[in-house]
Amino acid sequence: MQGHKVYIGLGSNLGDRIAHLREAVRQLQNIMTVDKVSQLYVAAPLGYVRKDAFINAALSGYTQLKPMDLLVQLQAIERALGRRRVQYGPRPIDLDILFYGTMQIDAPGLTIPHPRLADRAFVLKPLADIDPQLMHPVLYYTITQLLHEAEDADQVHVYTPLP
Known about the structure:
- Helices cover 26% and strands 26% of the residues.
- The chain is an alpha+beta fold.
- The protein has one domain (4-154): Alpha-Beta Plaits, CATH 3.30.70.
- The strands form two sheets. Strands 1, 2, 3, 4, 5 and 8 form a six-stranded antiparallel beta sheet that branches.
- A hairpin with a 2-residue loop joins β6 (105-107) and β7 (110-112).
- It is globular.
- It starts with a strand and ends in a 5-residue tail after the last strand.
């Protein structure tokens, strides 16, 4: 399966965060060919009711699904892993389409590239792991350049679980 190159952001701040992320990657492999997965990063939640730290990652791969169909599948994975849609509430898993090739979409419920990724080091650091020279198709900066400008870059760290 070749298809469309996509980048997905993953995050969890509820329950067994590592297990949720692993299971999400496993389920994503059913709907796409995953070719790269970033390291895990830990970051404080932005504006969230519950203040447990997020563990974040990103992955890239290829899918035959159209953007809206991919979104529907991501939301199905989120529901299967216990996600309840509460704005700024804790979540066992959060899956976002960051990029879908160079496509630009602004539709109800779906904006690609993800509208806030350029301002969020917890998205940019994992992306830089897997494709530092990826060019943002709207801003025309690489992920490395965007990360260099991110104000919260010093607040996002590689997650190293206790042995």
